Amino acid sequence: MTFAGVITRIGIAVALAVSGISHAYLYIHGHRHIPTIGTAFVAQASVSFAVAALILVGGPAWLRWVAAMLAGGSLVAFVLSRTVGLWAAYLAEGRRARG
Amino acid sequence: MTEAPHTMSRRQLIRHSAWFGAAVGLAVVGGEVISHVAGTADAARVQGRPTLRFAQVSDSHIGFSGKANPNVAGSFDQAIDRINSLGYVPDFVIHTGDLTHLSTPEQFDQVKQMLTGLRTPHVFTVPGEHDSVDDAGQKYRSVFGAGTRGDGWYSFDIAGVHVIALVNTLNLKKLGHLGTEQLDFIAKDVAPLPSDTPIIVFSHIPLFAMYPDWGWGTEDAAQALSHLRRFSSVTCLNGHVHQVFSKTEGNVTFYSGTTTAYPLPHPGDGPAPKPVTMPAGKLHDALGIREVGYTRGQNALALKERTLQ
Q1: Looking at this predicted complex, what is its ipTM?
Q2: Per-residue model confidence as pLDDT tens digits over A31-71
Q3: Which terminus of chain A is less hemmed in, N or C, by CB atoms within 10 Å?
Q4: 3-class SS shares of chain A: helix, strand, coil, % to 5
């Protein structure tokens, strides 16, 4: 494994872990009470941690695709939640938090 | 014929399956850990929170006008704001009497309207002697008496606590008076309860002899309290005296609450309990509300007095 390869692995793993931590934090501090959204948050966090760990220990290339899909999916979900709304309740929650 | 370049060997398939299995397994374990942490955070919050939280407000004397407080409606509004800004929704609010100053229909209407501004699921009241000046409490009961018994007394259970609201302001001579019908009610009401049930009693006039010369006591309170002796935790909250005071007699603790209208002198301070005019800017220090919390397993209730300042 090249030096650049190791750095890339570590970079992806750290980014995924940070994304997982922020979702887990939000889940623990209230988001778990929102139907569907709560489950999505805990799923995002746990899959992020698992994929981050496996990429770090030298998992196959398709794990990186999983990581990319996770990151892209989370980003799309975030944009939707702040615009058209991902289930009415979550949009309302976002408005309350901003208000 | 050679093997297609993208065909996966058996060994590769096993390896990828192992990675996939590890990913699924780790994700499940991670999810469990996060849920567990969330559950522990919840349990800690529930443990720190009292089982029952309510607020007491008293002696609003809506309709009073005098130097001691030219705007009793304004200070009662402030008391309502104070309760609404406690940072949580109290399980109920109790008004321990003298809602009005002269029991007129307009005063009852005004105080009832004002009480609807409280953010709480339930508002309970007991009458003061000012709420029954000319009709033995009929107007009071027509406004606030729904669901009560006799002359307006009642009881209810909430969060494992038994609450009794008494009327000791009718048939007054000098001291508060409960009467045989109400004493019977108390005896029957508590008879089926196990002795470890926490009891909270509301009344307008104190159920202890705070200052009998001014009528600050209830003549037949001893009989009422005799039915409550076997309980491990009894707390009596009252109004009437317009000042904070507490006293413990055996298993019973009495707490007099303050007012939202005007202060009265300390017991024996002067010839009679007449409204005290405070120096400018000091009135709201003497007025206030009370927060009460009960935590399961603890005999004593936690009280916090809050001024309107």
Answers
A1: 0.81
A2: 777 767 888 999 999 999 999 999 999 888 899 999 999 99
A3: C
A4: 80, 0, 20
Every domain of chain B and the residues it spans: 9-48, 51-307
Please give the pLDDT value at position B4: 55
Q: What is the pLDDT of residue B44?
A: 66
Contact list in B for residue A60 (CB cut-off 8 A) is 15-16, 19
Q: In chain A, which residue's Cα lies nearest the Cα of B19?
A: A59
CATH of B51-307, one of 3.60.21.10, 3.40.190.10, 2.170.150.70, 3.40.50.150: 3.60.21.10
User: pLDDT tens, B86-130?
Assistant: 999 999 999 999 999 999 999 999 999 999 999 999 999 999 999
Look at chain B and count its residues: 309
Residues from chain A that touch B25, judged by Cβ atoms under 8 A, are 50
Are B171 and B206 contacting, i.e. CB atoms less than 8 angstroms apart? Answer: no
pTM: 0.67
Is B44's Cβ below 8 Å from some Cβ in A? no
Are the beta carbons of A47 and B30 separated by less than 8 Å?
yes
Q: What CA–CA distances, in Å, run from B166 to B126, B169, B246, B257?
A: 7, 9, 19, 16
- Decide if B30 and A50 are in contact by the 8 Å CB cutoff: yes
Cβ separation B23–A46 shorter than 8 A: no
Residue in chain A closest to B28 (alpha carbons) equals: A46
Rounded to the nearest 5°, which phi and psi values hold at B100? -110, 170
